[in-house]
Design brief:
eight-stranded parallel beta sheet; globular; binds zinc ion; 14 helices; binds N-(aminocarbonyl)-beta-alanine; nine-stranded mixed beta sheet; alpha/beta; 31% helix
């Protein structure tokens, strides 16, 4: 199997060159100008188009038992949605809860993906308690190629860990050279504020944000950073949503703490007024940390542009209208999550690069290269280079469209970004050399995706 992508503008972090990319089997074997077409090679004309390394979503939920229900996607639906949107690798949160056995959970999450995903994938292993067997189980999971952990400071009594468990996780992660990703909100404060609001008969989705205010996220972020500082571990704050939390992360970074920051698509484009919409419309926009006051968006865009926000993920987590209505009498029962795996690249390109908020370089870095580097996938993924996997996105910047649930591949009956313009979309997407998408249509091989082994990074 060979493929020549001809005459595109090849975009890597730090370079843009006009040229051709030649792929044999699963790997990029040549990059240059006017490469010869060997007999039998398929040729894609990329004239006038950008050629990006396959995009990597570092934060998705696909199989997720959560809040009395399950997220809607399967690996089949989520991976097709990802690919149509230009994402060729995702990292799923493996989330057994406190009552589950970690190793059994890990096997279960793997079994849900095995042979189902059309794109490559990996897992962050959630540590939702720290008991006698945890250390040996985590060592086994890391030895199996899953070299990143996840902790939740939120979701008390379900996914959440206490400070002692956070300490033990970070101490072990430091020994193993594994990066720890963290959902940073103070669980106790969230629980108390939720109860207070409910007793005041404040039950609608508009009260979700006041139950987890910015200070609650800033406290979680600051505490995580302090624990990193005192264990020497390397951490990664997931879905950071606001200026106060960013300040806490950047203050820690300035004093030498090894901390990286991810923000996710909804927080750049949607604000808390979406969750204040009446009834189920508001519920569709409930996630945690919540959508924030609009002024935070400018702060996030600026931090992303300068690189103090490292990556952009989605926190893809689809619940349909019926599921959202589980919270119709109390916002605390609304399943948390806003899907975006299909929209991330196009919306980030449009509202970032095209609207002048983000350089093309930072766009590629935040959505592909930096996730690859942070999570042990580089240079196999995250760059267009000889020897790298041929995960390529030929991007049509002349395409014009709007996001709509009617045309989405995600398994859901609405789209949180409904009606937003997109100025560009992938015209060709390859996974290890095979064309999986042509102009918005999945044309490839289901189940092509592989679980990616990752080694500890020892930052
Ligand atoms: O609202 C969210 N973020 N749902 C998914 C679970 C999580 O906290 O990441
Ligand atoms: Zn989270
Ligand atoms: Zn998440």
């Amino acid at each position: 199997m060979s493929l020549l992508i001809r005459n595109g503008e090849i975009v890597n972090v730090g370079s843009r060159i006009k040229g051709d990319v030649f792929v044999e089997n699963e790997t990029i074997t040549q990059i240059g100008q006017n490469l010869e077409v060997p007999r039998g090679a398929e040729v894609v004309d990329a004239t006038g188009k950008l050629v990006f390394p396959g995009f990597i979503d570092p934060h998705v939920h696909i199989y997720l038992p959560f809040m009395a229900t399950f997220a809607k996607d399967t690996h089949e639906t989520a991976s097709i949605a990802a690919l149509v949107g230009g994402t060729t690798t995702y990292i799923e949160m493996c989330c057994p809860n406190r009552n589950d056995d970690a190793l059994e959970g890990y096997q279960l999450w793997k079994s849900k993906a095995d042979g189902k995903s059309a794109c490559d994938y990996a897992f962050h292993m959630s540590v939702t308690k720290f008991v006698n067997e945890t250390e040996s189980q985590l060592r086994e999971i890391v030895a199996d190629g899953t070299a990143s952990f996840k902790i939740f400071l939120a979701y008390k009594n379900f996914f959440g860990v206490d400070d002692g468990e956070m300490y033990q996780t970070l101490e072990l992660a430091k020994k193993l050279g594994v990066i720890v990703t963290a959902h940073c909100e103070n669980a106790e404060l969230v629980a108390r504020l939720q109860q207070k609001l409910l007793t005041e008969a404040k039950t609608g989705p508009e009260w979700h944000e006041p139950s987890r205010p910015e200070s609650v996220e800033a406290e979680g972020t600051g505490r995580f950073a302090t624990f990193l500082e005192n264990t020497g571990a390397t951490g990664y704050v997931v879905h950071l949503s606001c200026e106060k939390a960013l300040d806490a992360a950047l203050a820690a970074k300035a004093r030498g703490v090894h901390i990286f920051v991810e923000s996710v698509l909804p927080h750049f484009l949607l604000d808390k007024t979406y969750a204040e919409r009446p009834g189920v419309e508001g519920m569709k926009h409930v996630m945690s940390p919540p959508l924030r006051a609009k002024q935070n968006q400018t702060v996030l865009w600026n931090a992303l542009a300068e690189g103090s926000i490292d990556t952009v993920g989605t926190d893809h987590c689809p619940f349909d209208t019926e599921q959202k209505l589980l919270g119709k009498t109390a916002f605390t029962n609304i399943p948390n999550g806003i899907p975006g795996i299909e929209e991330r690249v196009n919306l980030l390109y449009t509202h970032g690069v095209k609207r002048g908020r983000l350089s093309l370089d930072r766009f590629v870095d935040a959505a592909s290269t930096r996730p690859a580097k942070l999570f042990g996938l580089f240079p196999r993924k995250g760059t267009i280079a000889v020897g790298s996997d041929a995960d390529l996105v030929v991007y049509d910047t002349n395409y014009r469209g709007v996001v709509s649930a009617k045309s989405q591949h995600t398994n859901n009956d609405y789209n949180g970004f409904e009606g937003m313009e997109i100025d560009g979309r992938p015209s060709i997407v390859t996974v290890r050399g095979k064309i999986q998408v042509r102009d918005g249509k999945f044309v490839g091989e289901r189940g092509r995706g592989k679980l990616l082994r990752r080694e500890p990074s020892h930052f």
